[in-house]
Amino acid sequence: MLDQSQLPRHIAIIMDGNGRWARQQGKPRIMGHQAGVRSVQEVVKCARELEIKALTLYAFSTENWRRPGSEVENLMGLLQTYLESQLDKMLQNQVQLRTCGRIERLPPKVRRILEKTMAKTAANDGLILNLALSYGSRDELLRATRHLAREVAQGCLQPEEISEELFSAQLDSAGLPDPDLMIRTGGEARLSNFLLWQLSYSELYFTRVLWPDFGREDFLAAIADYQQRQRRFGRTGEQVNDREQA
Ligand code: FPP
């Protein structure tokens, strides 16, 4: 049973294991990604029902461009079909689409549908569905650093004025709370260049379940696990208990 008062505001997910899932079934890798889209739909629906504020999904990394051209094309096609088929549902359910990463590197057709979906859902005030596309955390950090360095060089900003808040505001995730919980499926325990700044204080949850097998029950189990943890943010356990009782 989940504690409704202790739900994570923002959940980030590394959706891993599509390829292995397909191999286990003796199917081509793309079938794993196709099955992964069903998990995306189920998790988005569940997050919306729970009234989670934001869900960030790592859908395509800067490193994923190194995959065979046919797989990249297939993934772009799946993304396009997903967006086209979900627009009405997003509007009905107050889901707002956002992205992080270099979407200018995506094929023009995909970019157009992303931009259209973002514009049409911009006023929705339910779940923020943030898709990380052509995303790499180091790339994002460098872009933010270059931007601030330019402002300093132009004399519009003093180095001492660069605070955590100002820096966060330069990231693609500006305006979103940092993730409280990060889930990675597929059995690996690494961050793979995902939200390195934003995950500083997040609870990390790793599961062996492959992404296409990850459904509502697994999502709820990850949140239940999160609710068992004590988040101390550098304080002692006793300090946290005293604050909670106050
Ligand atoms: C990792 O599995 C998964 C990806 C690189 C792509 C994730 C994409 C989807 C779930 C579908 C499209 C997304 C949306 C939002 C509609 P892998 O291929 O690395 O798996 P493996 O490690 O088992 O090979």
Summing up helix and strand content along with how strands pair, one would put the structural category as alpha/beta
Question: What is the string of SSEs from the N terminus onward?
Answer: EHHEHEHEHHEEHH
**What do the pLDDT scores average to?**
96
Give the low-confidence spans: none
Q: Which small compounds were modeled alongside the protein?
A: farnesyl diphosphate
Whole-number tally of structural domains: 1
Radius of gyration: 19 Å
Task: Quote the distance from N terminus to C terminus.
Answer: 25 Å
Characterize the main sheet: 6 strands, parallel
CATH level-3 fold name: Undecaprenyl pyrophosphate synthetase
The CATH homologous superfamily is termed Decaprenyl diphosphate synthase-like
Percentage beta strand: 5-15%
Cα shape:
globular
How helix-rich are the residues, as a percent range? Answer: 40-55%
Strand element count? 6
- Please state how the strands of the largest beta sheet are arranged side by side: 3-4-2-1-5-6
In words, what does this structure look like?
The protein is α/β, with parallel strands linked by helices. The chain has a single domain, classed as Decaprenyl diphosphate synthase-like (Undecaprenyl pyrophosphate synthetase, 3-Layer(aba) Sandwich). It contains eight helices and six strands. The protein has helices spanning 18-24, 29-49, 69-92, 108-121, 137-153, 164-168, 216-228, 237-245; strands at residues 10-14, 54-61, 96-100, 128-135, 181-184, 203-206. It has a six-stranded parallel β-sheet with strand order 3-4-2-1-5-6, sandwiched between helices. The relative contact order is 0.18. The model has no long low-confidence stretch (mean pLDDT 96). Bound molecules: farnesyl diphosphate. Farnesyl diphosphate binds at residues 15-20, 33, 36-37, 40, 57, 59, 64, 75, 78-79, 82, 131, 186, 211.
